[in-house]
Structures are given as structure tokens and as C-alpha cells.
């Protein structure tokens, strides 16, 4: 069975509190985007994992696809599987790519072996695999709080708008990015803001990680500026970086950022 684990972006991101478990509470709107890996899982005589495409750092045994398989195997007598991941989404880029691979592995195994797990049960298996992971079970735009794994509905209408994601080949560690933030209450009136025209959002929502990363990596602020100059109605860094995106009311202008890895599509 083949699936296409996609990336996400964050619309606004506030780190509101340091928790007693070492994690941080946040507020953000998570939105799926179409930049995707390719994941194939087949029953096999023994369990194996191989990846092609972008090289994934770390031991194969720590790959989130295998960890997701092991997570289910604690409770189900799963047959061995052969997993092939073709990695396309940049890694450690604020796009949740690894978390998406893990969530899609859970969903594929649920279907392939008819485990009859509900959406809520799949989310419970996803949570220990990464704070972003549960989001990709439903994979729908949501308002997220807690560690980024508690969701509620949000009114959001971005249908038909175009997005350009720009990855400057600059790896930023999520743990380090969190460590560089001083938590503060969220500044956004989410429900009002998201009903306003897109071009007004830049005055009303921000990503707290920009404050700590932009001074360190001026290239990121420059990409954001260039996106606005090119006509983006809203531009921001995603997650803990380093991907910066621009949302356009019409088509994305041609030939932007020819030297960098980019992806463009419709929301
Ligand atoms: C910043 C965000 C925003 O969407 O996205 P990315 O930049 O990773 O895409 C997420 O919170 C990233 O979630 P995820 O990448 O799943 O993080 P995890 O693997 O659970 O945690 C990695 C490390 O980040 C820190 N961490 C993560 C989530 C959180 N709410 N508080 C934290 O303090 C912890 O130090 C943790 O050890
Ligand atoms: N299938 C996978 N794809 C990407 N990264 C993975 C995967 N499995 C484990 N990882 C590890 O997860 C980390 C990056 O996760 P990723 O979700 O791409 O980043 P981010 O959370 O910043 O969007 C890397 O340290 C990488 O070694």
C-alpha cells in the first residue's frame, strides 16, 4: 500500500509556557500542505526499512516509520513489513515531515491489517512519537494548543490561494529553538484575525521562533522580505524553521529563489 505523507505549516506560533515535563505549551494554527514524501508498506517475510531521496540523519532503527510500527506492535500481533520511504520533504525544516511519516505509517498499518483503530486511538498512538505527530492523523487545518497535540476547530478559508515554501538549506534544531524562547501569553485574537483579509494578518499574528532565529540567520528575514516584495499577502517562517513561506492571493510569481529548494501549490 502506498501513501503520501505531506508537510504542514504553522500560521502564527506562540510559545506560551514552559511545562513541568520540559516541553512547552503553544498556540498555533496548523495547516496541511501538499509537499509530500512517498511511503510504501508491504507485508514481507521479515521487517525492513529503506529510504531513498533525501538522506535521513540517524540510525535506521530510530526512523519514525519503524518507531510507529513498533508502537502498534506493542498491542497487535503484526506480521513483518517491508517499508520503503522516498524522502522529499526537507528534514528538520519546520514542516513536520518526520512526524507525518510516522502518522501515515500508523494509518497505513491500520488499513493494511484491518486493525479497526478509530481516529482518536490512532492519535493516542501518534502522540508519544512526536508533538506534531497526532495532527497528521486527521490532517486538517486546526487550532492547536498544549504540546501541539490538542486540537480544536477553526474557521479558515484559504481555499484557492497559492503558497510558496522556501527552504534555505539551513538546519535548525527544534529543541534548541525552544530553548532560545522566553514564553509569553499569546498575542493573537485568533477567531477575529483569521476572518480578516490575508494581507492584514502580518500585523496580527507572528511566529515567536522568528525573534530568536532571524537575528542569528539574517537570510531568513531576507527571504520573508523578498516574499512580501514579490506580492505575498502573508509571509512567515514555519514551526521552528528554517522554511519560510508566502501565501499569495493569485498565482505565485515565476522564478523566485532559483538557488534554493522550493515547493509551490494550492492551499
Ligand atoms: C515547533 C513545532 C511547531 O509545530 O514544529 P517543527 O518546527 O518541529 O515542525 C513543533 O512544536 C515541534 O514538534 P516536534 O518536532 O514533533 O517535537 P518533538 O519531537 O516532540 O520534540 C523535540 C524537542 O522540542 C522541544 N519541544 C517540542 C514540542 C513542544 N511543544 N515543546 C518543546 O519544548 C523539546 O525539547 C523536545 O525534546
Ligand atoms: N522519516 C523521517 N523523516 C524525517 N526525519 C526523521 C524521520 N525519522 C526520524 N527522523 C528524525 O527527525 C528529525 C527531523 O524531523 P522533521 O519532522 O523532519 O523536522 P521538523 O520537526 O523540524 O519538521 C531529524 O532529527 C531526523 O533524524
UniProtKB/TrEMBL annotation:
It catalyses: 4-CDP-2-C-methyl-D-erythritol + ATP = 4-CDP-2-C-methyl-D-erythritol 2-phosphate + ADP + H(+). GO terms for molecular function: 4-(cytidine 5'-diphospho)-2-C-methyl-D-erythritol kinase activity; ATP binding. SUPFAM superfamilies: GHMP Kinase, C-terminal domain, Ribosomal protein S5 domain 2-like. GO terms for biological process: isopentenyl diphosphate biosynthetic process, methylerythritol 4-phosphate pathway; terpenoid biosynthetic process. Gene3D superfamilies: 3.30.230.10, GHMP kinase, C-terminal domain. Pathway: Isoprenoid biosynthesis; isopentenyl diphosphate biosynthesis via DXP pathway; isopentenyl diphosphate from 1-deoxy-D-xylulose 5-phosphate: step 3/6. The active site is at 8, 132. Residues 205-252 form the GHMP kinase C-terminal domain. Its EC number is 2.7.1.148. Pfam families: GHMP_kinases_C (PF08544), GHMP_kinases_N (PF00288). The keyword tRNA processing does not apply. Belongs to the GHMP kinase family. IspE subfamily. This is 4-diphosphocytidyl-2-C-methyl-D-erythritol kinase.
Amino acid at each position: 500500500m502506498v501513501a503520501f505523507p505531506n508537510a504542514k505549516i504553522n500560521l502564527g506560533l506562540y510559545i506560551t509556557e514552559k511545562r513541568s515535563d520540559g516541553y512547552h505549551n503553544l498556540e498555533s494554527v496548523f495547516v496541511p500542505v501538499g509537499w509530500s514524501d512517498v511511503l510504501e508498506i508491504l507485508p514481507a517475510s521479515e521487517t525492513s526499512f529503506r529510504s531513498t531521496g533525501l538522506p535521513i540523519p540517524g540510525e535506521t532503527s530510530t526512523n519514525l516509520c519503524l518507531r510507529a510500527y513498533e508502537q502498534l506492535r506493542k498491542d497487535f500481533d503484526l506480521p513483518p513489513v517491508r517499508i520503503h520511504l522516498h524522502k522529499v520533504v526537507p528534514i528538520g525544516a519546520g514542516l513536520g515531515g518526520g512526524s507525518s511519516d510516522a502518522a501515515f505509517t500508523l494509518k497505513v498499518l491500520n488499513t493494511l491489517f484491518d486493525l479497526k483503530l478509530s481516529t482518536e486511538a490512532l492519535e493516542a498512538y501518534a502522540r508519544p512519537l512526536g508533538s506534531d505527530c497526532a495532527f497528521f492523523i486527521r490532517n486538517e487545518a486546526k487550532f492547536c494548543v498544549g504540546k501541539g497535540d490538542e486540537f480544536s476547530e477553526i474557521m479558515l478559508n484559504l481555499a484557492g490561494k497559492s503558497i510558496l515554501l522556501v527552504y534555505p538549506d539551513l538546519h535548525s534544531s527544534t529543541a534548541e529553538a525552544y530553548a532560545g524562547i522566553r514564553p509569553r501569553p499569546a498575542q493573537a485574537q485568533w477567531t477575529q484575525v483569521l476572518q480578516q483579509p490575508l494581507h492584514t494578518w502580518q500585523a496580527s499574528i507572528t511566529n515567536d521562533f522568528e525573534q530568536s532565529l532571524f537575528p542569528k540567520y539574517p537570510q531568513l528575514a531576507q527571504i520573508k522580505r523578498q516574499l512580501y516584495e514579490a506580492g505575498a499577502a502573508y509571509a512567515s517562517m514555519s514551526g521552528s524553521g528554517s522554511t519560510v513561506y508566502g501565501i499569495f492571493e493569485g498565482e505565485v510569481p515565476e522564478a523566485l529563489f532559483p538557488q534554493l529548494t522550493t515547493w509551490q501549490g494550492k492551499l
